[in-house]
Task: structure prediction
Amino acid sequence: MDTPTTTTKDTAMEDVSLQPPPGPPPGPPPTSQTPSVRVELGKHGEVEGPKTQLCSTCNTTVWTTVTTSTNILGWVWFLLCYCFCCVCALLPFYLKPYKKFEHFCPNCGALLKTTMSRCTSTTIAITVILIFFCFIMFPFVIYIGLKYIGLV
Result:
């Protein structure tokens, strides 16, 4: 009986060598420096979440109880937009830059800390655009609508 002859597939597989891929030669071995790791606290949850803090009234370390309320800027925004019947009047009740977070001791009820979220440049830009829309464009749209109806 004849032995089977090798096929081109088998031959191609036999010719593959374990040579390194062409390209630049490998560089020096890596140094033994350990990478430095920087941990940043306060990016998310530092302001609005409960945290451990020393209560000076009862002299114990406790997890604070947090209450949220709207700050003065939020109330001013609400009243101005509400006077012009603008839907944007409700934004301060849902956005963090208009919130005030008060941390209380759960044992004695003492106020430990009051924090507010920082306004970023994006928040300020959005606020300015909404103010422009509410106080400049809204009366213009009302005027155009009344002119269309024929009342002006």
